[in-house]
Amino acid sequence: MAGLATTFGSGAMTNSNNDITDAACILAIGSNTTETHPVIGFNVKKAVRHGTKLIVANPRRIGLVRFADIWLRQKPGSDVALLMAITKVILDDGLHDSAFIQQRCENFDTFKQSLDNIDLASAENITGVPRNQIIEAARMYARNSPASILYAMGITQHSHGTDNVMAIANLAMLTGNIGKPGSGVNPLRGQNNVQGACDMGSLPDVCSGYQKVTDPAIKEKFKAAWGIDLPSDTGLAITEMFDAILQGKIKALYLIGENPVLSDPDASHVREALSNLEFFVAQDIFMNETAELAHVVLPGTSFAEKDGTFTNTERRVQRVRKAIEPTGNSRADWLITCQIAQRMKAKGFDFEHPSQIMDEIAELTPSYGGISYKRLERGGLQWPCPTTEHPGTQILHTQQFARGKGRFMPLEYKPPAELPDDDYPLILTTGRSLFQYHTGTMSRKVAGLNLFKGEEEVEINPQDAERLALKDGDRVRVVSRRGHVTAGVKITDASSPGVVFMTFHFAESPTNILTNPVLDPVSRIPELKVCSVRIEKV
User: Fold this and answer.
1) Four-residue CA torsion sign, 182, 316, 159, 499
2) Taking the CB of residue 515, how many other CB atoms lie within 10 A of it?
3) How many CB atoms lie within 10 A of CB 344?
4) Is the dihedral of CA 305, 309, 310, 312 positive or negative?
5) Cα dihedral value 511, 516, 521, 522, nearest 10
6) Per-residue pLDDT band at 6 (split at 50, 70, 90)
7) Exposed, middle or buried: residue 112 (CB in 10 Å: 0-12, 13-18, 19+)?
8) Contact status, residue 140 vs residue 132, Cβ threshold 8 Å
9) Tell me: the pLDDT tens digits for 110-146?
10) pLDDT tens, residue by residue, 304-343
11) Distances from the Cα of 499 to the Cαs of 75, 475, 505, 534, in angstroms?
């Protein structure tokens, strides 16, 4: 997450999964942890059973609420206002860690002054959270150290997601909850190798290990290794690529392991853009809705059919070992890429095994410098692991931050880009189900999972359902400014009044036709978590 990188160096967990059980207090915000990260959710529940205080900040009544000491039910998109109010209470009560701030941080006085305009009455009005709950949560977090913050895409997928992350970083630094067991700022990654993909430069502004493409020294380093000039400019985020396609700036696309027709916002726009490409290659293990638009489909292999590594949410690099031979004409992704490059007469793609690729990664990526397949045979290693003698790093920033001193960032609450009005009076927020995964490319092929959840439902609060004369099972049309989808009704108080919830697992009800593609100006992540809709009975 680009916002966190300013202070902490990368958008990775500062601590480890098992470290969660050492926390005296856990703040879980913007994360339905037990459904989207069930292993970590188990650790949270284990910690609570052993006395850890739990604060859950979420617009929905998620599973963790049953275990929480405090549930802050903020309005979608109001996280910055909530976090700044909590920070203000801690400062006013003198519960901040003055020694940590003085020794390890900067810009504190400016940050402190920026909170002068924060008052609990305004925070209550913006967030919908009663001021007494804000005060109670602030004191609980500050007085129970070490404290850990867990967050996920409920924080980042906003038009102000970077501000959300900065507010979390401010709160952790204010209380000295960085660099020690049981503490930290811990973003929970959305898929099994998202962390590894980011580490390897699958972002538009960095090479592997978050080495900036705009840094002349980094450019020269890779030029010497690869014998080619690298661009000095940053590239486009995926959501920006679709506009560029329609503007004629991108004419060909090679897509690997992604299904943006279901997963990206304003999905009709995505489909239109992909249909306008002169040449479109999709590479995946199953045919999906996006691959159906491709000129060429290349069959990749699943985790069980190839050797490689995954880097999980706690920065742990782990071996993936081939259990069966590739099915049919499928090939490992790395091999397909190399064979295409060889046919294009590119040099440096004559690898015979992924272990050789890892050796090159270690050579060019300081944080992976000490990682090899030989070492990984003895178990996973957490980066940074700069040398072959280094044991890996369980906790980041124990002595100092990646940038030296942690910088407090003054913030200002900004509302979501789209708010309810007379035409679209409800807020739609999106998420995942425990029983399906992402766009369903894999999980919907499992009959047992389909028995638990086999079609899309729109979750509606009983008050809204009564006003709209709806009952469980009714079919409705959910309409936004970008399109409409149909789904069945599920009446539940898991959704607060004025807020409806849908997943994006089902092609028959492609929820992301509705969502807003407006981007955070820094991270360029779209606002998938908040858009305005209306509901019409079919």
Assistant:
1) negative
2) 28
3) 8
4) positive
5) -10
6) very low
7) middle
8) no
9) 999 999 888 999 999 999 999 999 999 999 999 999 9
10) 999 999 999 999 999 999 999 999 999 999 999 999 999 9
11) 9, 18, 19, 11
Structure tokens at 498: 């004025």
**Could you tell me the domains of the chain?**
2-188 (3.40.228.10), 194-382 (3.40.50.740), 426-537 (2.40.40.20)
- What pLDDT digit, counting tens, does each position of 412-444 carry? 999 999 999 999 999 999 988 888 888 878 878
CB 181 within 8 A of CB 17: no
Segment 396-409 mean pLDDT: 88
pLDDT above 80 for 369: yes
Residue 158 CB partners (closer than 8 Å, separation 6+): 77, 79, 164, 416, 520, 525, 527, 529, 530
Distance in Å from the first CA to the final CA of the chain:
40
Which two structure tokens, joined as six digits, stand for 499? 């807020």
Chain centroid, CA 183 distance in Å:
20
**CA dihedral of 313, 258, 350, 206, whole degrees rounded to 10:** -60
**Is 185 in contact with 149 (CB distance < 8 Å)?**
yes
Q: Could you tell me which of 398, 364, 400, 361 has the C-alpha nearest to residue 381?
A: 361
Could you identify the residue written with the tokens 């459904």? 35
Q: Give the residue-averaged pLDDT of 392-420.
A: 90
Q: Which of 148, 160, 224 is nearest to 188 (CA)?
A: 148
Q: For 29-82, give the DSSP string.
A: ES--HHHHSHHHHHHHHHHHHTT-EEEEE-SS--GGGGG-SEEE-PPTT-HHHH
Say if strands 531-537 and 25-29 run parallel, antiparallel, or are unpaired. Answer: unpaired
- Geometric angle at alpha carbon 402, from 398 and 408, rounded to 5°: 90
What is the rounded distance in angstroms from the CA atom of residue 140 to the CA atom of residue 54? 9
Instruction: With CA atoms as reference, report the closest residue to 332 among 298, 355, 306.
Output: 306
Q: What is the DSSP letter of 191?
A: S
How far is 128 from 308, CA to CA, in rounded Å? 47
Name beta bridge partners: 298.
283
